[in-house]
Write a structure and sequence with these properties.
Length: 411
């Protein structure tokens, strides 16, 4: 019989979302008339920007004619898109990233999950806690973490706890690690990383020969002018950082699928023999072996984000969600809760009231306000005692959810 990859058996089951679904089912069975509002999911709700829709239609028409039909595209992505990314996402911020350092993909989930393949099987990993689960699970699958203990902690992982006490700023690892995943603006805490702090990380990586895997999927939500949108805004980052970006949350591409990863030519790893190797070539090799890039039609849709109309429409979309974030933040604060995030990020992270675990608070919110959020404990041990709400709902649902929380939780 075929032997399986037993590391998969070390994964924690998808306990979080199946448990949420179970509790909602039970509640609905007991209260069939209750209208539940879900502010737990990280998916967007507003349609694609009109400029994107127009470009998608045009690209579909091109596929209908032999003269303009496209088959397999270039593996790193079409240059019409990588050139726009280099100019608008980086050049406009004074950052030097060339089109051939940009590799287009179908999502930051795939890229942040797959990137670990270009590192050694015994490379060591540091992760923030709480964390976007993909970074953890992809390393569990690859056998880098060992088995989880009864508290769900993997002995082989260096955890960097992010709590209110340290302002959700991860401490530098207290032991040598090869790769560290950083995500800012953060899912789930909504925290951001300012330049001096990011510089501290870049300096640490340069001194310790580590690589930073920087997930900037939420950079479009940054409002404060002094917060970097890219890690490459920090001097020296080109030598030590890989950056993930996505159109999912900026332009509503969660179901359309387009993203990209920047691997500067300067960022290197080493062989067991100590020889330096550029990671750009390794990632390109990995992608061209296992992925055939994103459909032409979709890349044309993504390119439309960079037109004047596209930029204005994306800004309006982000502004819409950020107004939801403001409504949630101020509404929760009015109830006396301690609220974090939601100012430069679409996530609102709150401290559960004294004596209530994150699951207790989930039940309370469901039972008393008929609102669903996500218990912080689902994102890692340090998420216990916290709770996540998202700004991606419709305006009406967001307003109603907060009105209910204000009246029913303050009682
Ligand atoms: N990175 C983070 C931190 C996320 O929260 C998400 C989605 O929720 C992703 C990446 C995935 O993005 P994509 O839709 O591009 O796969």
């Amino acid at each position: 019989m075929a032997k399986i990859n037993e590391h998969y058996l070390k994964l924690k089951s998808s306990y979080l979302f199946s448990e949420i679904a179970r509790r909602i089912r039970e509640f609905t069975a007991a209260h069939p008339d209750a209208r539940i509002i879900r502010l737990g999911i990280g998916d967007v709700t507003q349609p694609l920007p009109p400029a994107v829709i127009k470009a998608l239609h045009e690209a579909v028409d091109e596929m209908a004619r032999a003269e303009t039909f496209r088959g397999y595209g270039p593996e790193p992505g079409y240059e019409f898109l990588t050139a726009l990314i280099a100019k608008h996402d980086y050049g406009s911020r004074g950052v030097n990233v060339s089109p051939d350092e940009i590799i287009v993909s179908d999502g930051s989930k795939s890229d942040s999950g797959n990137i670990q393949e270009i590192f050694a099987a015994d490379a060591t990993v540091a992760l923030t806690d709480p964390v976007y689960p993909v970074y953890m699970d992809s390393n569990v699958m690859a056998g880098r973490t060992g088995a989880a203990d009864e508290r769900g902690r993997y002995a082989g992982v260096t955890y960097l706890p992010c709590t209110a006490e340290n302002h959700f700023e991860p401490p530098l690892p207290d032991r040598p690690v090869d790769m560290v995943y950083l995500c800012f603006p953060n899912n789930p805490t909504g925290a951001v990383m300012r330049k001096p702090v990011l510089k501290k990380w870049v300096d640490w990586a340069r001194q310790n020969g580590a690589v930073i895997l920087y997930d900037a999927a939420y950079e479009a939500y940054i409002r404060d002018r002094d917060i970097p949108h890219s890690i490459y805004e920090v001097e020296g980052a080109r030598e030590v950082a890989i950056e993930f970006r996505s159109y999912s949350k900026s332009a509503g591409f969660t179901g359309t699928r387009c993203a990209f990863t920047v691997v500067p030519k300067d960022v290197t790893g080493r062989t067991a023999g100590g020889e330096r190797v550029a990671l750009n070539g390794l990632w390109l090799r990995r992608q061209s072996t296992k992925f055939n890039s994103v459909p032409y039609i979709i890349q044309k849709g993504a390119a439309a984000v960079y037109t004047d109309e596209g930029q204005a429409q994306v800004r309006a979309l982000v502004d819409f969600y950020m107004e939801n974030a403001r409504i949630i933040r101020s509404g929760l604060q009015a109830t006396g809760l301690s609220v974090y995030g939601g100012e430069n990020a679409p996530y609102i992270w709150l401290k559960t009231p004294p004596g209530l675990s994150s699951w207790d608070f989930f039940d309370k919110l469901l039972n008393e306000a008929h609102v669903v959020g996500t218990p912080g404990a689902g994102f890692g041990p340090a998420g216990e005692g916290y709770f996540r709400l998202t700004a991606f709902g419709s305006r009406a649902q967001t307003e109603e959810a907060i009105a209910r929380i204000k009246t029913r939780l303050s009682r």
